């Protein structure tokens, strides 16, 4: 790291000790609003937490010592919160049990799992552990990974297969984060999420027999949309007709994801455009061409939709300032 990066990292380093209420307050400042409960009173818990920027995501390393404890995200906290992101948990050492949406993931070294901060979750830690948490904006995951309620708190085994690829990519990105530009970091994040998405899709497919007809149909529809996004004639009615159901029924399926069919379609098209604007290999393509290539028939409506979703115009997004990300403290 450079001297300035070292200084920023020092400012972002925080020691967490004290009573459960002090723990809750500190965790809420570093992550999102959380409750802390110490389960072994004779084994006090302490932690050192360090934040590292990585494009529009943030790595937070939590090295924690002490006895068994629980961290909870409750509906009371969610209702008062403005946070709207996901966390990818990655175990460097030790173990933790993540629970959300009636799923439970027991993570050990090199394993990964995803949590949605707009839903209740629980993290139980049996003893000392070292974990890396990646705070990811919702737009990076929403739409890219099908059936969000299905993929949270699912263990991605980091010792083999696609899970190992994801694990090694997280480890490498964390080690080299100070040497990677914000634009490059965002492309690495895209690759990581794609690998995680494929791995989780495989797990869901393996459990296909135990899923309901509606969940299965929703995934087929999402796959169909993904394969036809660049067709500017693709509409909710056309999507429904291709699956022999009504547009109203398709909308009811998407309600499970908290979104309408039309909004999901636009969201996925915007994500394709955003990825192309980040891609150096496509720097010769105009913004208009990228928009047209991914189903937007009107450049003005595309510019408005892009700015509404990402809080920046396509032109400014493509040409960011030299240092767009500041170290969180």
Fold and architecture overview:
The chain has 329 residues and is of the alpha+beta class. It folds into 2 domains: 204 residues, Jelly Rolls, CATH 2.60.120; 107 residues, Orthogonal Bundle (Arc Repressor Mutant, subunit A), CATH 1.10.10.60. The protein is built from 14 helices and 11 strands. It has a 6-stranded antiparallel beta sheet, sandwiched between helices. A hairpin with a 2-residue loop joins strand 3 and strand 4. Helix 6 packs antiparallel against helix 7, helix 9 packs across helix 10 and helix 11 packs across helix 13. The chain is globular, with a radius of gyration of 21 Å. The protein starts with a helix and ends in an 11-residue tail after the last helix. The N terminus and C terminus are likely disordered.
Note the main attributes of this structure:
Arc Repressor Mutant, subunit A, alpha+beta, 2 domains, five-stranded antiparallel beta sheet, 329 residues, six-stranded antiparallel beta sheet, disordered C terminus, single chain, Jelly Rolls
Helix and strand arrangement:
Layout: H1 3-12, E1 14-16, H2 20-30, E2 35-38, E3 46-54, E4 57-65, E5 69-73, H3 75-79, E6 85-93, E7 96-100, E8 103-107, E9 112-116, E10 121-125, E11 129-137, H4 138-141, H5 148-151, H6 161-175, H7 182-206, H8 213-227, H9 236-242, H10 247-255, H11 261-278, H12 287-293, H13 299-310, H14 314-318
Antiparallel strand pairs: 1-3, 2-5, 3-4, 4-11, 5-10, 6-9, 6-11, 7-8, 7-10
Shape assignment? globular
CATH superfamily of the largest domain: Jelly Rolls
The averaged pLDDT comes out at 85
Q: How many strand units?
A: 11
How many domains make up the 3D coordinates? 2
CATH class of the largest domain: Mainly Beta
- What is the CATH fold-level name of the largest domain? Jelly Rolls
Model regions low in confidence, pLDDT < 50 over at least 5 residues: 1-11, 322-329
Instruction: State which percent range the strand residues make up.
Output: 15-25%
Query: In angstroms, what separates the terminal alpha carbons?
Result: 17 Å
What is the rounded Rg?
21 Å
Helix content: 40-55%
Given helix and strand content, the structural type is alpha+beta
If helices are DSSP runs of H or I spanning 4 or more residues, what is the number of helices?
14
Largest sheet: 6 strands, antiparallel
Order of helices and strands: HEHEEEEHEEEEEEHHHHHHHHHHH
CATH architecture annotation name of the largest domain: Sandwich
Strand order, biggest sheet?
Answer: 1-3-4-11-6-9
């Amino acid at each position: 790291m450079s001297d300035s990066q070292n200084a920023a990292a020092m400012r972002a380093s925080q020691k967490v000790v004290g009573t459960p209420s002090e723990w809750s307050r500190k965790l809420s400042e570093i992550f999102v609003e959380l409750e802390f409960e110490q389960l072994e009173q004779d084994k006090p818990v302490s932690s050192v937490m360090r934040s590292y920027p990585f494009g529009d995501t943030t790595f937070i390393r939590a090295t924690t010592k002490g006895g068994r404890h629980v961290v909870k995200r409750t509906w009371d906290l969610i209702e008062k919160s403005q946070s709207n992101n996901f966390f990818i948990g990655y175990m460097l050492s030790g173990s933790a049990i993540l629970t959300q949406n009636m799923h439970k993931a027991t993570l050990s070294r090199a394993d990964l799992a995803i949590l949605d901060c707009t839903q209740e979750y629980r993290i139980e830690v049996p003893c000392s552990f070292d974990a890396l948490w990646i705070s990811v904006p919702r737009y990076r995951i929403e739409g890219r990974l099908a059936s969000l309620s299905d993929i949270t708190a699912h263990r991605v085994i980091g010792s083999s297969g696609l899970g190992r690829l994801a694990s090694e990519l997280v480890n490498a990105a964390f080690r080299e984060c100070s040497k990677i530009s914000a634009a490059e970091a965002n492309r690495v994040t895209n690759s990581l999420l794609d690998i995680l998405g494929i791995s989780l899709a495989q797990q869901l497919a393996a459990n296909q027999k135990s899923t309901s007809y509606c969940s299965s149909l929703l995934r087929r529809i999402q796959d169909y949309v993904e394969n036809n996004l660049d067709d500017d004639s693709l509409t909710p009615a056309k999507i429904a007709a291709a699956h022999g159901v009504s547009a109203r029924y398709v909308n009811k399926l998407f309600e499970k994801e908290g979104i309408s069919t039309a909004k999901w379609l636009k969201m996925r098209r915007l994500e394709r455009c955003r990825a192309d604007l980040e891609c150096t290999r496509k720097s010769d393509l105009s913004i208009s061409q990228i928009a047209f290539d991914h189903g937007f028939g009107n450049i003005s409506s595309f510019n408005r939709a892009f700015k509404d979703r990402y809080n920046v115009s396509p032109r400014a997004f493509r040409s960011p300032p030299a240092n767009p990300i500041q170290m969180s403290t």
